[in-house]
Write a structure and sequence with these properties.
Elements: E1 12-14, E2 20-22, E3 27-34, E4 41-43, E5 47-52, E6 59-60, E7 71-76, E8 79-84, E9 91-93, E10 96-98, E11 100-102, E12 108-111, E13 114-121, H1 123-137, H2 147-163, E14 168-175, H3 178-185, H4 187-203, E15 210-215, E16 218-222, H5 229-245, E17 248-250, E18 253-255, E19 259-266, H6 277-293, E20 299-301, E21 313-315, E22 318-320
Parallel strand pairs: 5-6, 19-20
Antiparallel strand pairs: 1-2, 3-4, 3-13, 5-7, 7-8, 8-11, 9-10, 9-12, 12-13, 14-16, 14-19, 15-16, 17-18, 21-22
Helix pairs in contact: 3-4
């Protein structure tokens, strides 16, 4: 067995049998641990990296208190600095507003609502943390957001809509007779249905909309931006029809699947800062129950929807418009 110099033990990984391999080199990473972008981490490159709200920045933040190009991170030699770029709300290091400051490892700095720090990590450590973050954020079966992460993001959207008098809505979809599918064909078949249903929802949503598996065979959507009651109904019907028309075929078995959908829409003139995500979900869930009671495979809302409205809701670069007829 090869002996290992104790001085270098912190640079090695011991493997069963006595062999050892060199650890990855430590590398500076920007870790965001608080705010809308919590959990994100970015491997810094030598030179400069821009931080801001603009998608063209190197590290883009979804935060209304962040300027388009808010600040830059510069890594030169052994020193990492942050420099504010005349941002509206400032850059803070250890709670002090700065124009330029050195970022020592572990020192906290703030951009908008996002709290960050520089940490030196190996690639193996980052991969482990990314796997843990993925498990905490996404549903492992369908690949879409899980209930916890959706709730965190959607609650901020609802609060923002209430504060700025914007329309907001929630859609809840539930696969019809899912328990009988599991009982008849087995859980593997049921998992296939859930996964494929999630894909259908993704294919029929806009890029910016929030979608999650809310629990079991129940899925939830929060359309972001300007929407209308009629357009949300069209949105729901497009998903419902796509599911109804799709041939669910797995392991030589083909089964027709339908979905019931309930939604709740709150107009901008009725926007209320006191409205919570739970309020919207509760009302949408009542609409879903109504859809089930009326025979399933239909869309229902607790609002009174005109029989022949015209709605628009862009999806994946397209605009859906035209007559909407309530399905009997």
């Amino acid at each position: 067995m090869r002996s290992i110099d104790p001085i270098h033990l912190d640079q090695t990984t011991i493997i069963d049998g006595g062999a050892y391999v060199q650890k990855d080199h430590l590398h500076p990473h920007l870790i965001i641990f608080s705010g809308n972008n919590s959990g994100r981490r970015h491997k810094l490159r030598r030179g400069t990296s821009t931080i801001g709200r603009s998608p063209s920045t190197d590290i883009s933040l979804n935060d209304d208190r962040v300027s388009r190009v808010h600040c830059i991170i510069e890594w030169m030699g052994d020193t990492i600095t942050v420099e504010d770029k005349a941002s509206t709300n400032g850059t803070f290091v250890d709670s002090c507003r700065v124009n330029r400051a050195i970022l020592s490892p572990g020192v906290t700095f703030q951009v908008g609502h996002s709290m960050m720090k520089i940490e030196y990590k190996t690639e193996a450590e980052i991969r482990l943390e990314e796997n843990l973050l993925y498990s905490a954020t996404f549903d492992t079966l369908t690949g879409i957001f899980n209930r916890y992460h959706f709730t965190k993001l959607a609650a901020m959207e609802v609060a923002y809509a209430g504060r700025h008098k914007l329309p907001v809505g929630i859609i809840i979809a539930d696969i019809d007779n899912f328990k009988s599918i599991n009982d008849t064909y087995g859980h593997q078949w049921g998992d296939f249905v859930l996964s494929r249903f999630a894909n259908i929802v993704i294919e029929n949503k806009r890029t910016e909309d929030l979608v999650a598996r809310y629990g079991g065979d129940e899925f939830i959507i929060l359309p972001r931006g300007e929407v209308s009651q009629e357009a949300m109904y069209a949105y729901c019907e497009r998903i419902r029809r796509a599911v109804e028309d799709f041939k669910f075929s797995f392991d030589t078995v083909a089964v027709g699947i339908t979905v019931s959908i309930g939604f709740h829409f709150k107009k901008s003139e009725l926007a209320d800062p006191e409205t919570t995500l739970s309020d919207l979900i509760h009302t949408a869930d009542q609409a879903l129950y109504c859809a089930k009671e009326k025979g399933r495979n239909r869309t229902e809302s607790c609002c009174n929807i005109p029989v022949e409205p015209v709605g628009t809701l862009p999806v994946s670069g397209r605009v859906l418009s035209g007559k909407i007829v309530r399905r009997p």
